[in-house]
Amino acid sequence: MAEVLSQSQIDALLSAARSGEMNLNRSDQDSEKKYRKYDFYSPRKFTKDRLKMISGIFENYTRIINSRLNGLLHTTSEISVESVEEQRYYEFSNALSDGDVLTLADVEIQGKRESEEAPVLIHLSTGMALNMMDRLMGGQGDATSKAPAGYGFTPLELKLYETIVKDLIATLGGSWENYIDLNFVFRRVESNPTLVQLIGLDETVVIIGISIKFPNASGRMNICLPGMMLTNIFARIAAMNQVGRGEGEKNSKEIMDILRDSQLEITAELGRTQLKLWDIYYLNVGDVIDLGRSTKTPVDLYIGGQPWFSGKLGTQGGNMAVKIWDTYHVQTREEK
Predict the structure, then answer these.
(1) Element (H, E) at 74
(2) What pTM did the predictor assign?
(3) How far apart are CA 204 and CA 175, in angstroms?
(4) CA 242, CA 254: separation in Å to the nearest integer?
């Protein structure tokens, strides 16, 4: 959404133009690099990482609605995120005209609906909205070029508009599923938003600008997320991550108790030798195989295929047994 100048900024520009301090030559202005002044009285509420996270979420959202709109309107479209900006609400509201239509939606965070004081706002450009309606009714979207400036929607068009935006809102929560469980619920359509104060003028909001292109038309959809709602969402995400780490530490003792009771197979290796396949074929019960080592030589005890102990071969209760004689060091096991 374009930056809206305040009245004092407009007066300063006009005064500089009259006094000759500002050069109105467009070629000179284009060659200069433009910077946006930082307002220290209204510091930024969200870091670049947070805005980047929101941008990634809505890039996922554009992929979802791209396929939905193509199926709903029977056309092909290109949808992409153009901008993610933190602004004051008055910058968003000043860019709206009397004929614009806003869609209000509430958000449910983990099944609990947030306060209705600051809804999510969705704005579709008039030409794009009419193009979608015409396609929804079986047309080709050609009638949008005839819409005059300040065009007001008829009651029938508002119903069609509501049908389209409900489908867009229903898929909005799915783009957040990698971070938190959100559900966006349609509240109502506001046909004259300039007469209704939906959010405090100085409240921080994040505006997501989404470009929509059809074969014969292009437009823009703006989604306004209240700053307080985003703050609550980020706080829930941080709390969930913290709880996840805490639960892992609490469960460590329980995990160790389970591991202590687990069963592992211990294998005693008496020795190794090599035989020809011909000799193995003619082996019979009672034959003796020379392992090449003395009966007094310690045997190796393996756990999980790794040597852990050395032991002495013997008997206990009439059964063969191995008495653990020594424990291998980690370095010894790695060398083996």
Answers:
(1) none
(2) 0.60
(3) 22
(4) 19
Q: Residue 136 has which token pair?
A: 């929804």
Q: How far apart are CA 222 and CA 100, in angstroms?
A: 12
Distance CA 5, CA 221 (A): 21
Phi, psi of 125 (to 5 degrees): -60, 145
Tokens representing 95 are 């860019």
In the DSSP assignment, the letter for residue 200 is -
Residues with Cβ < 8 Å from 20, sequence gap 6 or more? none
**Cβ within 8 Å of residue 315, ≥6 positions away:** 321
**Average pLDDT value over all residues in the chain:** 80
Any idea what the Cα angle at residue 235 is, between residues 233 and 238, rounded to 5°?
A: 110
Compute the distance between CA of residue 38 and CA of residue 154 in angstroms, rounded to an integer: 42
* Per-residue pLDDT tens over the stretch 183-241: 898 988 888 777 777 788 888 899 999 999 888 888 889 999 998 888 888 888 888 77
Q: Is the dihedral of CA 14, 15, 18, 20 positive or negative?
A: negative
C-alpha separations of 173 from 170, 182, 300 in Å? 7, 5, 59
Instruction: Please give the span between the terminal C-alpha atoms of the chain, in angstroms, as a whole number.
Output: 67
Interatomic CA distance for residues 11 and 101, integer angstroms: 30
Q: What is the CA radius of gyration of the chain?
A: 36
Using CA atoms, how far apart are residues 229 and 118, in angstroms rounded to an integer? 8
C-alpha to C-alpha distance for 72 and 66, rounded to whole angstroms: 10
Which residue is listed with tokens 């890039």?
59
